[in-house]
Specification:
mainly alpha; two-stranded parallel ribbon; globular
Length: 245
């Protein structure tokens, strides 16, 4: 039952994304244009020229992105009412969550940026256009909401839920950490091989942190901060910094 539950939860969330990412990478590698000369556009307009409709689509996307995370928490909490504490939802250690989340973002941010630049130079990654919304008043708030939604979805499902369930299924700790890390890397393959490596390394660090602390909220905070920096930073610096063009 647990094994089937894990497969179903991943099948309606990031496991599905991983499969599409593999296909996307194959498509990009088989194009005539080299991978390093291709662009991966993120946070794009859903209704060009119709800002209010576009905003509606963006907010719906943010809302439904976190549903699988809520499902994962529900399933864990159904079996063990104390599971909410593992996600930091007990609010007993807010300063620890905030402080360690910010520290993780700082530790991972600069090396991650360096790896992205290196992988582009080596020709194993696309150029990632992290924010492509029109110049409207709601663009930055939506980018921030998208960053938070990404953090909630990925850390709740790929770390908190998956690590807990794999432990209950009898997996050894390092196997569970490796599975979590490889899954994270896999659903970023649409950006290129460099993104797979960077996100898998980040995933290993995050999974190990969860194993040691049993807290997932710091990971959500770290992830959200990294994505806010990427999305909003890209919007502000696009065209001014060479590797962002």
């Amino acid at each position: 039952m647990l094994r089937n539950e894990v497969l179903l939860v991943l099948g309606v969330s990031l496991g599905q994304s991983a499969v599409y990412s593999v296909v996307s990478l194959i498509a990009k590698l088989t194009e005539e244009t080299p991978l390093s000369q291709q662009t991966t556009a993120m946070n794009t307009s859903q209704a060009p020229g119709r800002p209010w409709l576009d905003l509606t689509y963006q907010l719906l996307g943010v809302l439904f992105a976190i549903v699988p995370a809520l499902l994962a928490v529900h399933l864990l909490n159904r079996d063990d009412p104390g599971a909410r504490a593992d996600f930091g939802l007990d609010r007993t250690r807010p300063w620890f969550d905030l402080g360690t989340g910010a520290a993780l973002a700082a530790v991972i941010g600069l090396p991650g940026l360096g790896l992205y630049v290196l992988s582009r130079e080596l020709g194993v990654n696309t150029t990632v256009a992290a924010a492509n919304l029109p110049d409207v008043w709601w663009a930055v708030p939506v980018l921030i909401l998208a960053a938070v939604a990404n953090g909630v979805l990925e850390e709740f499902v790929v770390v908190g839920y998956l690590m807990t369930r794999l432990r209950e299924l009898g997996w050894r700790t390092w196997y569970a950490i490796a599975a979590s890390a490889l899954l994270r890397g896999s659903y970023h393959l649409y950006q290129g091989i460099g993104a797979f490596v960077g996100n898998a390394l980040m995933g290993a660090v995050f999974a190990l942190f969860f194993h040691r602390t049993r807290r997932v909220v710091p990971l959500v905070i770290a992830h959200a901060l990294l994505d806010v920096a990427a999305f909003v930073g890209y919007s502000a610096l696009r065209g001014r910094v060479g590797f962002l063009s």
